Structures are given as C-alpha cells and as structure tokens.
Amino acid sequence: TVKRGPLRIEVSLDGVFEAQRMTEIVLRPQEWSGFTVLSAVEHGAAVRQGDLLVAFETEKIDRAIADLRSEQELTDLTLKQTERTVAALEKLTPLDLAAAQRADRIAREDYKEYLEVSRPLSLRTLEFNLKSAKETLEYQEEELRQLEKMYKADDITEETEEIVLRRARNAVERARFLYERAQIAHQQGLKYETPRADERAKDAVERAAIQWERDRILLPLALEKQKMELEKLRVQRARQEERLRKLLADRELMTLRAPHDGVVHDRKFT
Q1: What is the mean pLDDT of the chain?
Q2: What is the dihedral of CA 181, 185, 187, 192, to 10 degrees?
Q3: What is the rounded CA–CA span in Å between residue 82 and residue 89?
Q4: What does the pLDDT look like over 151-203, one tens digit per residue?
Q5: How far apart are CA 99 and CA 212, in angstroms?
Q6: Fewest CB atoms less than 10 Å from the CB: which of 58, 123, 160, 201?
C-alpha cells in the first residue's frame, strides 16, 4: 500500500573528528639519529602551552657536542700553528733557495781552487819538506865530518872538543829523525792524505749540487703542501662549525613542548 510520508536516506561511513585548529608536532633532526624516548604525554591528554610532550635521552648528544667543541679547540690551535708555519715558509723559502744555490756555487769554486791551487801546493809542500829535511841531514853530517877531521889536531883542549862534537852528533841525530819523519809524511801524503782530500773535495761539490737540486724542487713543494694543509684545516673547521650548529639544533628538539593549549592526539590510522 502506498501512502504519504517522509523519505529518509541513511549512509554509514567511517571517519574521525578533527579539531578546527591542529598543530603537527614533527621531529626533523639535521644531524643526530639516536633518539631514545624517556617520557611522553598520553594520547588524549589535555596540555597547556609550554607543557612537556616528549622528553628524550640527551647524554649521548651532549657528549658528542662536548667532544666536537674539544675538536674545534684543537683544530683552532693547529690552524694557528699552520698559519704561522706558512707565513714563515713564505719568507724562509726564498732565503733557503738562495742559500742552497750559494752553497752550490761556493762548493764549485772551492773545488776549482783545490784542483788548481791547494792540491798542487800540497804536493809541492810534501816534496819540499822531504828535500829540505834531506838537505838539512846532509849539511849536519858534512859539518860533523869536518869537525871530526879538524879535531884530529890537538890545537883544542880535549874537553872543548868533546862538547862541540857531541853537539854536532846530536844535530845529526835530530836531522836524521826529521828526515825520516819527512819521508813518512811524504809517503802518507801521496798514498793517503792527497787521495782522501781529493775524495772529500769531490764529495763536497757533488753533495752541494745534489742539495741545491733537491731544495730547488722540494722547498717550493713543501710550501705548497703547507698551504694545502692550511686550506684543509679551514674547511675542516667550517665543517665542524656547521655540524655543531646542527647538533645544537637537534639538541633543542630533545624536549618537545606544547606550542599552545590543546589535547594531544596521536594520529594513527588503521
């Protein structure tokens, strides 16, 4: 039977109620990743502005911040030291290069002087000393022979004669010893001293040349390396500062507070 009456349409839907004003509390750390919750407000709890919502464990991040600050202090000291080293090297490198080049020039000049003057003079001195000692011995021996020949006559008293002859014989003995010593010195000079002096002179000039070539290449490289180390430290210091800034910002997130009065709602949809 059809009759007049209201027509009602019913629809069943799932849904949720949301407040007109909602503030999302989001944790977005920039550097730190280890968050351990110590306490949190229960779902549905009413809170006032500034009330604690979530508290996290902060010991580890505080230690990381302290360690980073210590690293910064050490980096600052190393940075200052490197800056002064670079400044000193910029002044010393040209001086060291000039000194090495000058040492090389002096060594070559000394070697040339040794070959042209000192070495020939040393050999001539050995020969002259040997010749002089030999002549001295011959003179003393001849003088003794003449005295012995002269004293065969009895014109001089026996005592005076003995004194003069003894002095002459002593002079011959000294001259003979000096001649023997000159012979040994002559042999040693030719066999050992001169060859060793040759080696030392040659070694000195070669070492000076090698040192100059080495310094010419390595000293500028050492300066450049220190400059690179300085730049590396500056970059490291800037990165430490940026990381510290992020850690301090993350540290502020460790205590979440209510931005205004309201009810805590944990939005979990199933």
Answers
A1: 90
A2: 150
A3: 10
A4: 776 555 577 778 888 899 999 999 999 999 999 999 999 999 999 999 999 99
A5: 9
A6: 160
- The secondary structure of residue 42, as a DSSP letter, is P
d(C-alpha 248, C-alpha 68), whole Å: 11
Structure tokens at 84: 């002064």
In sequence order, what are the beta bridge partners of 256? 54
Global pTM exceeds 0.90:
no
Which among 7, 39, 61, 86 has a CA at the least distance from the CA of 249? 61
Task: Output the furthest CA–CA distance in the chain (Å, rounded).
Answer: 197
State how far the Cα of 67 lies from the Cα of 248, in Å rounded to an integer: 13
Q: Phi-psi region for residue 262, left (φ > 0), alpha (ψ -120 to 50) or beta?
A: left
Exposed, middle or buried: residue 19 (CB in 10 Å: 0-12, 13-18, 19+)?
exposed
d(CA 248, CA 3): 76
Residue 179 one-letter amino acid: Y
Q: Residue 269 corresponds to which amino acid? A: F
CA angle 134, 138, 141 (to 5 degrees): 140
What span, in angstroms and rounded, lies between the C-alpha atoms of 268 and 270? 7
pLDDT at 211: 96
Low-confidence ranges of the chain (pLDDT < 70): 16-18, 153-157, 267-270
